[in-house]
Amino acid sequence: MPRPPLLPTTHACGQLSGGAGTRDYGVRVLPRIVSGLVALLLAGASATGCSGQPAPDPSTPSAPAFASDEEAFAAAEETYRAYVDALNEVDLSDPATFEPVFAWTTGEANSGARREFSEMHANVWTVTGETRVALVAPHETSESGTSLDVCLDVSDVAVVDANGQSVVSPDRRNIQSMRVVLTAGSASPTGLLIADIDGREGQPQCNG
Fold it and tell me: What SS3 class is residue 102?
């Protein structure tokens, strides 16, 4: 069987270019996507160095009315943990297992997840092992949404191509530092959906 095509490499702020390459923190030749799918399922992410989140789209729904910041953060953590649970149930050979992941995402995060799952399925990649949430901490909440700082343990995750060759960099960090941004979602049982997952710097530190 021929080797699957190489995916684009990633530059700062998520810009893509063709060709092979290795990101110093993760999987070879995988693009960064706003959904954080590859980052979470395969290798984590590196902080991009971009100056903050993009300006909210006027059509973006406002955050649900929580009684307190604590209630908002609790709903955000519940949403995120359900998303991770869904990712850990994915079988790349069975597209039906992708649907629970899509259900916890919105906007570009959702379209990015659909694109990446489609590519990995077409390339006959296989993912084994489980991503574990090592830490979840509140970051901020506002009218536009809620964000969390998380540490992810990806040490158990392995990814191989159609020939059984690993596509994971040997330099991958076992514990990844991530920021998760959530916005209102009327279809979500928690009232929130994941809009973005990206690498971060600073506190809280993720050791590993």
Answer: helix
CATH number 3.10.450.50 given to 9-46+61-199: yes
CA of 169: how far to CAs of 75, 99, 164, in Å? 34, 28, 15
What is the tens place of the pLDDT at every residue in 37-60?
Answer: 554 455 544 443 333 344 344 344
Give the type of residue at 161: D
Q: Give the DSSP letter of residue 54.
A: P
The ranges assigned to domains in the chain are 9-46+61-199
Residue 62 — very low, low, confident or very high, per pLDDT cuts 50/70/90?
low
CA triple 204-44-63, angle to 5 deg: 65
> At 14, phi and psi to the nearest 5?
80, 10
| Alpha helix positions (H), 31-185 | 37-38, 69-88, 99-103, 107-122
| Segment (H or E) for 128 | strand 126-128
Which pLDDT tens digit goes with each residue over 148-198?
A: 999 999 888 888 999 999 888 888 888 889 999 999 998 899 999 999 988
Beta bridge partners of 99: none
Amino acid at 184: A
